[in-house]
């Protein structure tokens, strides 16, 4: 494979030297032998993958929904004004549902093949750099310590050459504790972003930290094709399964058709959730990873976006793209994805690895998190610097997400009561199968997401009440999601100063 080079690396080095007298020498690339051979961890081959989704829940809900709606249509059809509204709003997500179902089937095939393959050997030639940006507050430090320890414990079983870079802001609250952690753990170093550091385009927030870490790698000469950068959040850890699947993916990218980017699944162990209700509400996220994101990223062009965690990128490719997206960039991972689609079409992949995250600690934080995502994605969808063809899927997804508050069944019924018209059946019976698919997929995302989160928990059993609650409370969860999207849409339309809310991280 031809070597890739950073975009203007000399200029990047000059920018670095403007804020630092000299770059800190890199840590030794070669580490002591791995503590144990790969493949001795729990989860031997031949067993179902912990991120393999089922389809039974979708088929059951689809059948029941279609049967009931057909019966209602035949016996109680009396279209009104509200019927025209529901015909449009409740049919609109069909493309997302079909993409998600295609992705789920693709994931089942991928995980079935992975389960039959032997454990990969220790990766000795490629260098893995884990980058963990953190705001460095006292309330985020316990989660940071948990995840950094997980990298040091598990990743050396798969990679002989490894380093963990914790990226902090100069003068952050927990600086002393973070530096102490780095001195007590092997392979860990702290990169401090100087307060005076500015990117050429004025990027802020997490993208600024990522860009700084990137130009440090350029200055230290660690941007070869054999260097892989694993981006993680400061509340997202790994385990032995993650290490094994990362190694399998990296070892497969050595031929002429090698991929340059890969991503896996973000899951939420039960023990990482501060509140069980919020843990149930976030069940939708791993299901999205094994469905919509699996088909988008897995087919080579991640137009649906990327997550900032468990994002594996070849260092040479990251250096060529960079993270300098301008002052309004709040969803740097999604913007990196669209830039990647332009520069390296067809070169991304999806792998069945899991990362271990944590749900928000309060409803307020849950809504604030969704607000930032919605605001940032709307900014990105409206960014004309990116070709329209790369933004089309994102624009579609954002329209569906933005009208989410109007799709909520509670909102529909309130409007119907005000109009004196509670007839919500569609104006045409041909729409009923589409409604059934949409409803079946929506229920499936929470049902399967709960199953995936339970599988990665210390106690993998799904309680009977959890299965009932995650479906029964879907209207509540969707209302929280809608509140965040609505707030984000208002902030986007106002066009004011952007902000990057960092929520508290559970232990």
Automatic annotation (TrEMBL):
InterPro entries: B_mannosylTrfase_Bre-3/Egh, Glyco_trans_2-like. Its EC number is 2.4.-.-. Residues 228-435 form the Glycosyltransferase 2-like domain. GO terms for molecular function: glycosyltransferase activity. Residues 25-36 have a biased composition (Pro residues). Keywords: Glycosyltransferase, Membrane, Transferase, Transmembrane, Transmembrane helix. The chain crosses the membrane at residues 55-75, 81-105, 398-419, 425-447, 468-490. Residues 25-49 are annotated as: Disordered. PANTHER family: BETA-1,4-MANNOSYLTRANSFERASE EGH (PTHR16779). This is Glycosyltransferase. It comes from Pseudonocardia humida.
């Amino acid at each position: 494979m031809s070597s890739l080079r950073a975009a203007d690396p000399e200029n990047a080095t000059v920018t670095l030297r403007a804020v630092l007298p000299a770059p800190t020498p890199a840590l030794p690339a070669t580490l002591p032998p791995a503590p144990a051979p790969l493949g001795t961890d729990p989860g031997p081959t031949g067993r179902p993958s912990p991120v393999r989704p089922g389809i039974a829940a979708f088929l059951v809900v689809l059948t029941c929904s279609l049967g009931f709606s057909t019966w209602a249509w035949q016996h109680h059809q009396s279209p009104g004004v509200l019927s025209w509204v529901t015909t449009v709003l409740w049919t609109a997500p069909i493309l997302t549902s079909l993409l998600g179902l295609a992705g789920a089937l693709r994931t089942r095939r991928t995980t079935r093949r992975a389960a039959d393959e032997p454990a990969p050997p220790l990766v000795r030639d490629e260098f893995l750099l884990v980058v963990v940006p953190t705001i460095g507050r006292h309330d985020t430090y316990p989660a940071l310590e948990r995840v950094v320890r997980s990298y040091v414990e598990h990743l050396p079983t798969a990679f002989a050459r490894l380093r963990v870079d914790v990226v902090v802001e100069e003068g952050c609250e927990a600086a002393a504790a973070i530096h102490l952690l780095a001195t007590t753990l092997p392979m860990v170093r702290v990169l401090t972003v100087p307060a005076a550091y500015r990117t050429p385009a004025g990027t802020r927030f997490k993208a600024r930290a990522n860009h700084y870490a990137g130009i440090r790698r350029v200055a230290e000469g660690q941007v070869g094709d054999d260097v892989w950068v694993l981006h993680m959040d400061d509340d997202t850890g790994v385990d032995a399964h993650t290490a094994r699947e990362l190694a399998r993916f990296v070892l497969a990218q050595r031929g002429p058709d090698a991929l340059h980017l890969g991503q896996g699944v973000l899951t939420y162990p039960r023990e990482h959730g501060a509140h069980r209700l919020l843990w149930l509400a976030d069940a939708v996220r791993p299901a999205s990873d094994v469905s919509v994101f699996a088909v988008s990223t897995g087919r080579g062009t991640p137009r649906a976006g990327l997550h900032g965690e468990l994002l594996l990128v070849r260092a040479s490719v990251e250096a060529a793209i960079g993270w300098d997206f301008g002052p309004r960039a709040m969803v740097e991972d999604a913007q990196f994805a669209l830039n990647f689609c332009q520069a390296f079409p067809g070169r991304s992949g999806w792998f069945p690895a899991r990362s271990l995250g944590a749900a928000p600690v309060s409803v307020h934080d849950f809504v604030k998190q969704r607000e930032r995502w919605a605001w940032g994605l709307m900014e990105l969808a409206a960014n004309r610097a990116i070709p329209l063809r790369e933004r089309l899927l994102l624009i579609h997804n954002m329209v569906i997400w933005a009208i989410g508050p109007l799709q909520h069944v509670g909102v529909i019924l309130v409007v119907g009561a005000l109009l004196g018209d509670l007839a919500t059946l569609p104006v045409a019976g041909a729409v009923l199968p589409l409604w059934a698919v949409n409803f079946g997929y929506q229920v499936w995302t929470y049902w399967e997401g709960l199953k995936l989160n339970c599988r990665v928990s210390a106690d993998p059993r799904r309680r009977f009440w959890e299965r009932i609650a995650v479906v029964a409370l879907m209207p509540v969860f969707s209302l929280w999601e809608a509140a965040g999207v609505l707030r984000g849409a208002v902030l986007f339309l106002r066009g004011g100063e952007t902000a990057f809310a960092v929520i508290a991280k559970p232990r």
